[in-house]
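[job 4471] stage=fold_predict status=RUNNING
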Amino acid sequence: MADTLDQVAKIAGVSRATVSRVVNNSPKVSPRTREKVKKAIKESGYKPDAVARSLAKNETGIVGLVIPESVSRLFSDPFFAPFIQAVTEKCNDLDYELMLSLLTTPDREKEQCEGVVSSSFLDGFLFASSTVEDPLVDELLSDGTPFISVGRHPNEEVNFVDVDNYGGAKRATEYLLNLDHERIAAITGPLDQAAGIDRLKGYKDALREAGMEPEEGLIVEGDFTEESGVNGAQTLLANFPTAIIAANDMTAIGALKAVKKSGKSVPEDIAIVGFDDVASATAVEPPLTTVRQPIRELGRQATSALHQLIHESNPGDGSLRRDFLETELVVRSST
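[job 4471] inference complete, writing structure tokens
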């Protein structure tokens, strides 16, 4: 196995300096020469020294994905599996190693925050599913570490990539209004997270534009779990809704179970709409009408945005990344 740049250079018929430039992703190499060197590296079995590369580039090639959720939530919410898979695949494409960090308990959050921020061996972070006042965001801003919030953040200094939660929820509510529903209830997501806030606002604005004022008795707060859908629907049934819009599919599935257990039919008595379009949305009976969000594309774009931020020549120049991905209403039998 070749173990020096000189040996690769000899195989490729180029200088040692040219091989070094290719290994360190320098733009000062023509595409033709780059391919020649890559072919020589592959043929020779040469493995670039990761430590030497990191010293030369002042980078480690490692990024962190921080999810401030419990392990049980991570594995029970079907949103996270395709999202993490997409982030991992994009990291592989960009030649990054990925470190996953779960901020598990409130009493350890400060200690974990300090540990994450002080991880100088990381080039940057993706920060997913955070609350709007999460202390880690302020820590990262103060530290100057490149990071992307996966989800809108109210702080004007934060770069983020998100889906159009507001527009998706508004479109779903308008669809129910067009079906002549007059008592449309909502089971929200956590109202300390941007997704929960934006989806509730979309629901309320659709009602107001239709000349209806949102009723307090037709809105309950959930937490994106099936259990909160069951509990929320049981509370709402006392106020006679004709439709329920849930903040995500797991909540909608819980609501559907509660409605059916009460003896009512879906959609004949109560229509139900979810949000996400995860696999389980089509596994229930009746299949869920839902707002499809591009989960995998969200992971890919957030990772690409972080890569660009890490390599930005002037990270403090005031330009921000604030990207929204489109959502789509998928109509099925629950409405």
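[job 4471] summary: DSSP finds 13 helices and twelve strands in the chain.
[job 4471] exit 0
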